[in-house]
Amino acid sequence: MSRKSKRKEQQVIENRRSKKLLKTVLAPLLLLLSIPALVFGVHLVKQAPKKTTKESQPTQLVIKEKKYAEVSSWSELVEALSNTHISEIDLKKDIKFPQTEEELTTENRITVQKEKIFHFDKTKKKQQRRSILLLNFPEKSFDRSVVIQGEGKSIDLGKVELNLPAGLELDFKDVVLLRAYHY
After folding, report:
1. Full-prediction pTM beyond 0.85?
2. Which of 15, 89, 105, 140 is the most buried (most CB within 10 A)?
């Protein structure tokens, strides 16, 4: 007998042994293991509470990875920035910041300071001192990045400057930031 034929005969014998092993040992073992799983699964289905939903109840979708806020005014924008759980802000319309201290202070979320800055006036070709309103957020743990999506909307700051707390990073996507230099 040649080596090739001996090798083929040995392979045939090994294949028969493995098939026999599967039929005699592994098949009954799998069957035994599946019975408790089937019994336990039926038991869990019987104990599961029945879900009853009324058609009047709206379905709520909870997303835990990111918290979204839709804003349409400057006060809602400041409130969303103050909320440490919000990671994405969607602008629903153009936002214009008020230009007086009284209108800017809202619900103790921010403080307003009047400051003078140097501004170069191109028409007069000289530097002038102009007043701005500086918005300060109260000290909190702001270590996070916030994405502000505008879909082409604008935020008109006018003569308002945002003094962002350390750790708060704003990433503007498709937002036009407007600044009025004619204080």
Report:
1. no
2. 89
